[in-house]
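HOLO CASE FILE
Compound: iron/sulfur cluster
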Amino acid sequence: MAYVEKFKGPHALSGKEFTYCPGCHHGIVHRLVAEVIDELGIEGKTLMVAPVGCSVFAYEFFNVDGTVAAHGRAPAVATGLKRTTPDKVVFTYQGDGDLAAIGTAEIIHAANRGEKITTIFVNNAIYGMTGGQMAPTTLLGMKTTTSPYGRDVNKEGHPLHVSEVLKELRGVAYLSRNKVDTPQDVIKTKKAIKKAFLAQMNNIGFGIVEILSTCPTNWGLTPIESMKWLEENLVKEYPLGTFIDKVGDDK
Amino acid sequence: MSEKVMVKGTEAIGEAALRAGCRHYFGYPITPQSELTEYMARRLPELEGVFLQAESEVSAVNMIYGGACTGKRVMTSTSSPGFSLMQEGMSYIAGAELPSVFVNVVRGGPGLGDIQPAQCDYFQATKGGGHGDYRLVVYGPESLQEAVELTIKSFDIADKYRNPVLILADGMLGQMMEPVSFPEFKDLNSFVDHSDWAMVGTKMERDAHRVTSFNIDPYGLEKMNIKFQKKYKEIVENEKMYEEYMLDDAEVVIVAYGTIGRIAKSVAKMAREKGIKAGVFRPITLWPYPYEALAKHTDKANMFFTVEMSAGQMIEDVKLAVNGKKPVEFYGRMGGVVPTPGEIFAKLMELVK
Ligand SMILES: Cc1ncc(C[n+]2csc(CCOP(=O)(O)OP(=O)(O)O)c2C)c(N)n1
Ligand code: SF4
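Model generated. C-alpha cells follow.
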C-alpha cells in the first residue's frame, strides 16, 4: 500500500495524466521539478509559467498556481509575477523553440537582469508540438520538416548553444546542462534543478537548467533509439556540465 | 481634491495612476510619452513601488500580464509603434481576463511615421489589434483634468470587469501643461479582492489557480468566448460616456474626441457667431461607443460633421450611429498635423453653404 502511495508521485504534481508521447523526456523532467518543489517545501508559494509547445499543458500537471505565456514570452511574464510578488518562487518551463527562437530576447534579458526566477529549459533540438520543424538547436545535417535535406550551415547557420551564450551574463547565478536518459543523470539533473531554485530562493540571481531531451515522435525513432541518438549526437554538440554555480554546496 | 497645480500631460496621467493605487509599472521609452515612463521611474521608488524598463514593448506587455496575474494594479504606457508591438500581449491579457491599464499617446503613422500628435490608432484601439474576439474599454480624454479622472477610473473599471482598459491620448494631450487637481491617494487595501482567481500561491490550502487564455477544446473555448461577450455586453450597457456641448437646438453636430473634441467646441462657438446652430458631440468612451446618444440627434440635426486627426476612422462609428438618416461629412488631417479651429470652421462653412 505504501508503495502504491509513493508511486502516485510527488505532491506538487496534480495527478492529471501527461499528454506526452511514449519515450518523451518532458514527463521525467516534470517529475523531477515536482520532487524538488516537494523537497524544498515551496509548493504553496510557487507560481509557474508554462510555455507554448508540447508542455503547454504543464500548468495543469502541477499543483501550483500557474499560467501559460505567449510563445517565448515566459521570462517576461515570470518577471512580472516575481516583481509584483517577490516572496513567491517563480519558474518557467520552456522548450528550445520557445526559448531559443521566438523568445531569445526575453530569456537573455531576464538572465542578464539577474531576475530572481528559475527556468527549466528542455532542448530536444526540434519543434515538437507543431510537427517536427527545425529549431535553432537542430543539429547540422539533421532532417526536419522544414530542413528536409538536412540543416545546412550556409542556409540555416549553426546550432544555437544557449547555455554557452547565457554563461557570459553576469546576472546568472546557476547554469548547467544535463540529461535524463540514465539513472545517474536523473539524480544529477534533480540536483541541478534544486540549485536553480535555490539560486532564486537565496536571492542570488537567475537560475537555469538546460536538459537535453528526446522527441521520438518527430525524430522518427523508437524511444530506445532516441536515447542512443541523444547520447551519440546531441551530447556531442551540446556538452554537459555546470557552467555557473554561485549557489555553493551548503544551502 | 487637492489644490490645482500646473503639470504636463504625461506627468498628470502618471501621478493619477499612482493615486489610483498603481505600484507596478513596466514600460519602454518612445516619444511622445517617454516623460511618463521617466515620471514613473522617479516616483515609484519613492512609494516603494516597482518600476522596470523592459527590453521591448513585447516584454513590457508580458510583464504587465505577469503582474496582473497576481491581482496587482499594473500599468504600461507607450506610443503607436510600441502599441503595435503590445498587441500580441493585449490579446493574451484579454483572453486571460486580466485587469490592467494601458496608455497610448498616439503619434503620426503608419510605420515609424513621426512624433507629432495623431488619432490614427483608433481602429487598432477600438476594433481589436490583437487576434481573437476581444474588447478593450477605451477612454479618449480631452483635457488633463479629464485624463486624471479617467486614469483613476480605468483602474476601477479594469478591476471590476477583469479587462484591460486603454487611455487613448494624443501627443498634444501628452505635451500640454494645464492646472490640475489630484484626488487623495487611494487606500491600497480598498481594492477589489482578486484572491479567488489570482496567482498568489496555493498555501497548500486550495486547488491551484490556473490563469490562461488557453483552451484546446473548441466547445470549451466557445463557452469562454460566450462568457467574454456577456461581459462586453454588460460594459456596453453600463459604461458609455460622452459629452454634449450646445446640442439642444443644433442643426450641425460636430463629432470629435480627445483634444480635437476640445478644438471642436471653439469651432461650434465660431459657427454660432455666424448664426449657424452648431454643437459638439464628444464620445469619451471610444469603446463602448455611445451610438444611441449620438443617434438621438438625427431627429433635429441636418448634418453630422466628423473631425479627426486621421484619414477617417471614427467616422465609421458615426455613420453606424446615424445609420443613413442624415449626411455625415468629414474633415481630417494626417501625419501629425493638428487642424486649427479656423481651418475646421472654414470647412464647416463650405459644407453648410
Ligand atoms: C507566436 C506563435 N508562433 C508560432 C506558434 C506555433 N508553435 C506552437 S508550439 C511551437 C514550437 C514549440 O517547440 P518547442 O518550444 O521546442 O517545444 P516542444 O514542442 O518541442 O516541446 C510553435 C512554433 C505559436 N503558438 N505562437
Ligand atoms: S512531439 Fe516530441 S516533444 Fe512533443 S510530446 Fe511527443 S515526443 Fe515529446
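CASE NOTES: Chain B is about 40% helix and 20% strand. The radius of gyration of chain B is 21 Å.
CLOSED: yes
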